[in-house]
Amino acid sequence: MTRLARPGGSPPAPRSVDVARLAGVSQKTVSRVLNDEPYVSADARRRVLDAAAELGYRRNQAARALASGRTRSIGVVTLGSALYGPASWLMGIEEAVRKVGYTLRVATTIEGDPGGIASALASLLDQGVDGLVISEPIDEGVGLISVDVPVLVLGAPPTFTAPQVVTARVGAGRLARAATEHLLELGHATVHHLAGPQRWYSARDRLAGWREALRAHGADEPPVVEGDWSAASGYAAARELAGDGTVTAVFAANDDMAIGFIRAQLEAGRRVPEDISVVGFDDIPIAAYVTPPLTTVRQPFDEVARQGLALLVQVIEKPDVELPPAADQPVELVVRASTAPPPPRPIPGRDRRAIPHAPGGPHDQPAGSEVPSTQP
Amino acid sequence: MTRLARPGGSPPAPRSVDVARLAGVSQKTVSRVLNDEPYVSADARRRVLDAAAELGYRRNQAARALASGRTRSIGVVTLGSALYGPASWLMGIEEAVRKVGYTLRVATTIEGDPGGIASALASLLDQGVDGLVISEPIDEGVGLISVDVPVLVLGAPPTFTAPQVVTARVGAGRLARAATEHLLELGHATVHHLAGPQRWYSARDRLAGWREALRAHGADEPPVVEGDWSAASGYAAARELAGDGTVTAVFAANDDMAIGFIRAQLEAGRRVPEDISVVGFDDIPIAAYVTPPLTTVRQPFDEVARQGLALLVQVIEKPDVELPPAADQPVELVVRASTAPPPPRPIPGRDRRAIPHAPGGPHDQPAGSEVPSTQP
DNA sequence: CGTAGACATGACTGCGCAATCATACAGGAC
DNA sequence: GTCCTGTATGATTGCGCAGTCATGTCTACG
Hints:
The structure is a homodimer.
Chain A: H1 16-23, H2 27-34, H3 42-55, H4 61-68, E1 73-79, H5 84-99, E2 103-109, H6 116-126, E3 131-135, E4 151-154, E5 165-168, H7 172-185, E6 192-195, H8 201-216, E7 225-226, H9 231-242, E8 249-252, H10 255-267, E9 277-279, E10 296-297, H11 301-317, E11 333-334
Parallel strand pairs in A: 1-2, 1-3, 3-4, 4-5, 6-7, 6-8, 8-9
Antiparallel strand pairs in A: 10-11
Helix pairs in contact in A: 1-2, 1-3, 2-3, 5-11, 7-8, 9-10
Chain B binds a DNA duplex through helix 2 and helix 4.
């Protein structure tokens, strides 16, 4: 087997022996310098670095991985959608991975693909990742596959066995609880829930938080309507959930569904928030700019991803050290204009042309509302 | 160097020789079977597959890469944000990469990080990817680094040298032109443009398309206001762009800015679309559900990513074959309720309480409008 | 019946690096 | 001076696989 000239006809890439020859040292010394190992003289180090720069040398990661048994890469399983939540997790993870000196490999699953997680995991394990991140898992197929690297589960409790499992979560339950309590404290008798798909842990977490809040306040627990995260499903759910006009407050499991739901209300002639209050979840960047600006709950994706990854890397590099439990992140409820006290009495489907939101008018926003909250 | 037991204390992973031993063949035959090479008897193939399954064997990708000089992975440089456009590209790419049997490595850059693209590229090249995808590039730092693998540039013309560069684009210019023409054909004297950051090719493309449409129709070209893709910047731009009430039609370079802009109009007492028409760009999933439902332009991210990747893989695997030029994708303008003919005469800032959109009312939607357009 | 070719298989080797081990030399302790 | 310990370096080896080449077997055909 001969060294292959590269496709473009360019000469083969330099190897560490080439660098060694030019620097007048052994190949091993080159390796030592580039890995920041001790026992290299300042002089040798300088000569090696100069030679490497001159040749444009870059280490062959495949060879490094083969020789060391480590790939310095982390695999992430995420949902293959441009939804704000999953995309935010992914970006948070990428940044965190890069900052700890690892690289990222991605495999996606799609909603409703049975075994999708298992095959995504298999693909990443085949690639020899040193650790795995499972973002917003849904409970299918996981556990069927034996995972032999440490795993970070984001946004959910661990559910399968691996040598080490660490978790980082937002405390979505607490957030959901805060959102629900916000509505109850405005005076609503109870709060309906427009849930996410219950195969998702994060959807179940939110449901549980909502339920807790209702119980703590002694409020009735109305039936739950389940959506699929999309605005379309929120729109559709409105028929089921608010057809009779007795609903005065809704907590939606994400902002998209909340926006779809609000749209349906407006089309049905109900005003938000005068007739019906709506709280979303995620604080997507446009939440402050829809009409009415959406009261929602913010998840600190970046911070949670960063902390979780720090734990994961620690487990990868020092498997024996005991870990501190991950700290839950602070709750942040962002109150805007989609929530208000309930109307004096339930208003059966209005027939007059409703004014969904009176812009510019004297319009009571609960404390803390802030329209231009996102970027400048 | 001894084979290392894995961190969890589990026994070392099986190797191809282990499979070979169990199957009663040589290691090379195992390799042949798993690579679908010819000249293996059906019997040997079966024994190898059985043995591999029994041992739970998976090939070591590092060793494969080292021996073959190919990693079967593709690197993608993308913007580190949860914006719908970049996230959609990424997901389209991931799916396409997986379908052609490659794996994906991701490196991100962030807006305004000088040299960010160069360092992302370097990181991916270090990892030995067989090909690169540069998604929605911005023009900084690229070209400073010598790239020795084929590159696919999405959504932009190629701007740097690599052994092979292929491009796949949406024809964003044509889409922008269609959006602008839609407004002109509704009777607007001219169309203002709320542009994206001009360091982005996609933003420049849209600007150029808008300009072309104006020229073709002999319309005046009003000054451009530049945003940063965010709803907040669209909101802020409204002050500059529509302060005097003479603007009747705006084409925003993405939906987020369009939504922020609309929000500002409503707060200023102007109605959309009665007083001012707005077209967005991207057709984000909630575009059909905001108030008013947004007329916008849809980019076939998935399809473009898929076609581009097919080209890229062909170049990787058969560098010598001549390529067909990538076909531009069909234009799709989605007309909803944020556009209408202009008001009889320019209306200086109204002072009455405006009704942004009369839901349920008889409200003229141009042909093709469709509220529940997204998922069921 | 001998030989060309297709088919099937395995021995051997090397990809480029890091781990192991051996070695060499310095400076301090005794 | 001898022994030790710490520092600096290199020779050698092997990670697990795929490429190369040699070899063997079987069929087809003159």
